[in-house]
Automatic annotation (TrEMBL), chain A:
Classification via Pfam families: Ras
Localization annotation: Cytoplasmic vesicle, Secretory vesicle, Acrosome; Endoplasmic reticulum membrane; Golgi apparatus membrane
Record-level GO cellular component terms: acrosomal vesicle; endoplasmic reticulum membrane; Golgi membrane
Protein name in the entry: Ras-related protein Rab-2A
Topology versus the membrane: Lipid-anchor
Family: Belongs to the small GTPase superfamily. Rab family.
Molecular function terms from GO: GTP binding; GTPase activity
Stretches with biased composition (Gly residues): 201-212
Keywords for this protein: ER-Golgi transport, Golgi apparatus, GTP-binding, Lipoprotein, Membrane, Nucleotide-binding, Prenylation, Protein transport, Transport
Positions of the UniProt region annotated as Disordered: 193-212
CDD domains: Rab2
Automatic annotation (TrEMBL), chain B:
Region Disordered, residue ranges: 1-56, 435-679
Start-end of Low complexity biased regions: 517-529
One Gene Ontology term, aspect cellular component: plasma membrane
Name listed for the protein in its UniProt record: Rab-GAP TBC domain-containing protein
Length: 212, 679
């Protein structure tokens, strides 16, 4: 599918904060409470439109357990945006934000747009982290902030799209060097080519043993 | 303003991974609906399409496996290809509970740490680990009937196994990738066995995979790049061009042993191979998957960027249909011998150390399959025996008396079988166990650390550090001897077609008159061993074509000095050196095993009763139980005439996994062993 730009996102945050659910809600518009644990990295993609331009978001959903950070680090490379997610019902996931942020800053390019997300906003009764605390943290570290609920889909679209808008603005301002793919931005093909369809179209094919 | 994603844009791997995404309509926790033969709810990740082998074939294989299990040590001493063949053909579902633990050394570990699992299980664990594990429980195979409900035996079992692991290895704790591995184990065996299998996998087969730094995974991802470059250059080039690294697509292939990326029946077959050959199989499967995704030009052309390539690789399960046999054959045909793997490991390790001077990670000591696992088991046994003796239990009739040494092998064997019964009784006697239980925890805990340290420090056989055994001094020169000399010796030992191992030892021992009792044998044999062994090896100088291969293998093994590879060498060497004791132990053990293992059914039965095994196969098995039983009986009768059998041992001594030929072509000569022994 033709797109003007492709942005690479990475979703980070502690295990169990709802990273995969956010992604699924965004790409598939559904909530799946029961799903497989993310080991390593999973991928999602979706087209959005900003300013009349088709933008493809390529989203890398990472494993949250601390030990996986050594691996997650290799996924930061070339990300234009990051969603840093914590769970508003678990204080510890908020407390770990600083280390996540350090990691993100250290291993990505300096222009990467980071969106702080307090997820599970539907669970108001179990809230442990006030919205103001999230806002304060975001202000302090220069992040955009939002509270979302992957379950009710509240703010999920906005979170992804606002991040994209920010990136788009930076492109307009000339902050991002869009010719350097290491910045997580790729200029799309000017015309739609038949080849650019995704893997699904080759689905049922039986590969022969012969290769290479 | 927004355009919703097309179906093709949804992450394929998510849809595929046990189908977790497909079934939002399924109410989890509700009584199980229809499932496939593996217990996956139909329509939600059920993947078991193929029926599997015919019942007759299954029964045949069961009989073969029971035969193998019942004489495990002997099969390994004979070094026949039986086990590999059968692993390649697939272990019958009814016997995986028995075979997987046996292959990876978990059975032995469990036997020697009798109550350890129960002890750990009954104790509270670190709350932080408990919390993390609890949070993950419903995220492992959520559409398998065993793991549907929070209080179901699947999730509870998973919790117990993972929790116990954090207690056994507090320095490693719990890694999320262990969940799916433990879950598949639990689908196939009771919790205690699953626990020990997980321990063996985490510690022996894949060290560093689940430790806090995941060094094993980082390392193997780099090795995979090398392997792909050699086995699949075009696809490798494509990956390079688009900046796709193995860590991006193979992290959970490797860490979860493909649990979420293969149809379940194929997965079980892959695990059969994995327990047999170790990590090599993971690389081979990865190569096959990459090939299937990107092997053809048009496939590569269709993936014109990083994302497209990754999506294709993540969705590779669609490229693996219900074709176990083909898939397994393809996996086995990937040209990656253990030698190749060692070479790649060496090279990568050099690079690794340059890049990470602080890292102490060394994957060379890892266990490459059942043979090595067995060698380590033997080695542990030895250590244990030595410790026992040091404690002053010299009076234990560990081995047969020297007067037996002049008996014919067949007579001997009869005696072992009889004799070992008493040995076992005394060894695993209640009194001793009770004394040891509390210590075991400590011993086990320290073991992991020791293992790592040992493999780092010395390339020599892994022995218990700090055990001041009298034989250590004697053995030291053996271990440090020049590799060539070792090869020479080993070669000569192997290449004496007519001299059966045991008899040769006897000759040797009887000529060395100083060996009169076990204790003395150890001390004096040590002093006089060098001349004796030289004498011995000089008297046997026949060579066959095998020798070169063996030599090369040995050279590599020696150079790279994986701890246990060396152990095997030394072990075999020392056997011919007048160290009667060791070999005697082997034999005792072999006898003991036969005795002990002849009744595997009782175990299985208890399993079916206690654990409500999910697989119908098991049920069928129990019904059919009588058939394999008779088989066993015939076997034990046959056992009395093992002479011919023993001969095959020396002939078959070629180094095991070294070349691909052995790996793939072995198929042709199955059952010959069996036949010989029957005759």
């Amino acid at each position: 599918m033709a797109y003007a730009y492709l942005f690479k996102y990475i979703i980070i945050g502690d295990t169990g904060v709802g990273k995969s659910c956010l992604l699924l809600q965004f790409t598939d518009k559904r909530f799946q409470p029961v799903h497989d644990l993310t080991i390593g990295v999973e991928f999602g993609a979706r087209m959005i439109t900003i300013d009349g331009k088709q933008i493809k978001l390529q989203i890398w959903d990472t494993a949250g357990q601390e030990s996986f950070r050594s691996i997650t680090r290799s996924y930061y490379r070339g990300a234009a945006g990051a969603l840093l997610v914590y769970d508003i019902t678990r204080r510890d996931t908020f407390n770990h934000l600083t280390t996540w942020l350090e990691d993100a800053r250290q291993h990505s390019n300096s222009n990467m747009v980071i969106m702080l997300i307090g997820n599970k906003s539907d669970l108001e009764s179990r809230r442990e982290v006030k919205k103001e605390e999230g806002e304060a943290f975001a202000r302090e570290h220069g992040l955009i902030f939002m509270e979302t609920s992957a379950k009710t889909a509240s703010n999920v679209e906005e979170a992804f799209i606002n991040t994209a808008k920010e990136i788009y603005e930076k492109i307009q301002e000339g902050v991002f060097d869009i010719n350097n793919e290491a910045n997580g931005i790729k200029i799309g093909p000017q015309h739609a080519t038949t080849n650019s369809t995704l893997s699904g179209s080759q689905g049922g094919q039986q590969a022969g043993g012969g290769c290479c | 303003m927004l355009s919703a994603s097309t179906p093709t844009q949804t992450p394929p791997s998510r849809e595929d991974s046990s189908g977790s995404d497909r079934g939002s309509e399924v109410s989890v926790g509700a009584p199980a609906t229809e499932t496939d033969r593996f217990g996956f709810i139909l329509g939600n990740g059920s993947t078991a399409g193929s029926e599997g082998p015919s019942p007759e074939l299954v029964r045949q294989r069961e009989a073969k496996w029971i035969n193998i299990i019942s004489q495990w040590d002997r099969v390994l001493l004979k070094n026949s290809s039986k086990v590999k063949e059968q692993c390649q053909k697939g272990i019958p579902a009814s016997l995986r509970a028995k075979c997987w633990p046996l292959l990876c050394g978990a059975t032995d570990r469990m036997r020697h740490n009798k109550d350890l699992y129960q002890t750990l299980d009954s104790r509270p664990a670190l709350q932080s680990w408990v919390d993390v594990i609890e949070r993950d429980l419903d995220r492992q195979f959520p559409f398998h009937e065993m793991f549907l409900s929070r209080d179901g035996h699947g999730q509870r079992g998973l919790f117990r196994v993972l929790k116990a692991f954090t207690q056994l290895k507090p320095e490693e704790g719990y890694c999320q990738a262990q969940g799916p591995v433990a879950a598949v184990l639990l689908m196939n065996m009771p919790t205690e066995q699953a626990f020990w299998c997980l321990v063996q996998i985490s510690e022996q087969y894949l060290p560093g995979y689940y430790s806090p730094l995941l060094e094993g995974v980082l390392f193997d991802a780099a090795v995979l790049t090398r392997v792909l470059k050699r086995t699949c250059p075009a696809a490798h080039k494509h990956l390079q061009r688009h900046g796709v690294e193995p860590l991006m697509f193979a992290t959970d292939w490797l860490m979860c042993l493909f649990t979420r990326h293969l149809p379940f029946n194929t997965l079980l077959r892959v695990w059969d191979l994995f327990f047999c050959y170790g990590v090599r199989v993971l690389f081979q499967v990865a190569v096959v998957l990459v090939r299937r995704a990107l092997g053809r030009v048009e496939q590569r052309e269709a993936c014109e960027g990083q994302m497209e390539t990754l999506e294709r690789l993540r969705g590779v399960r669609e490229q693996v249909q219900q074709e176990d046999d083909n898939f397994i054959a393809e996996v086995c045909s990937v040209p990656l011998s253990s030698k190749d793997l060692e070479r790649q490991t060496e090279r990568e390790l050099e690079k690794w150390r340059m890049e990470r001077p602080a890292s102490t990670f060394d994957p060379r000591g890892r266990c490459h399959g059942y043979r090595m696992a067995w060698a380590r088991v033997r080695e542990r046994e030895e250590e244990r025996n030595r410790k026992e003796r040091e404690k002053g239990n010299l009076s234990l009739p560990l081995i047969r008396s020297p007067s037996l040494l002049s008996l014919s092998p067949s007579l001997l064997r009869k005696k072992w079988i009889r004799g070992s019964r008493t040995d076992i009784g005394e060894w695993e006697g209640e009194g001793r166990e009770v004394r040891k239980v509390s210590e075991e925890v400590w011993e086990e805990r320290s073991e992991g650390g020791n293992l790592r340290r040992r493999s780092e420090m010395d390339g020599s056989p892994v022995r218990a550090p700090g055990v001041p055994c009298p034989a250590t001094e004697d053995r030291a020169p053996v271990e440090t001897r020049e590799p060539l000399e070792q090869e020479d010796r080993r070669q000569k030992i192997q290449l004496t077609p007519d001299s059966v191992r045991e008899p040769s030892q006897q000759r040797q021992l009887t000529s060395d008159h100083s060996v009169t009792s076990q204790g003395q044998g150890e001390e004096q044999g040590g002093l006089s061993q060098t001349p004796v062994s030289e004498q011995h090896s000089d008297s046997q100088t026949q060579e066959t074509d095998h020798s070169k291969d063996t030599m090369q293998t040995q050279e590599v093994l020696n150079k790279q000095s994986t701890a246990s590879a060396n152990f095997i060498t030394v072990h075999i060497m020392t056997e011919t050196k007048g160290e009667a004791e060791k070999s005697k132990e082997t034999e005792t053990c072999a006898g003991a095993m036969t005795e002990e293992e002849t009744a595997p059914h009782t175990d299985l039965k208890t399993y079916t009763e206690e654990e409500t095994a999910p697989h119908t196969d098991l049920k069928t098995y129990t019904e059919e139980e009588t058939a394999p039983d008779t088989d066993l009986k015939t076997y034990t009768e046959e056992e009395t005439a093992p002479d011919t059998d023993l001969k095959t041992y020396t002939e078959e001594e070629t180094a095991p996994d070294t070349d691909l030929k052995t790996y793939t072509e072995e198929e042709t000569a199955p059952d010959t062993d069996l036949k010989t022994s029957t005759q």
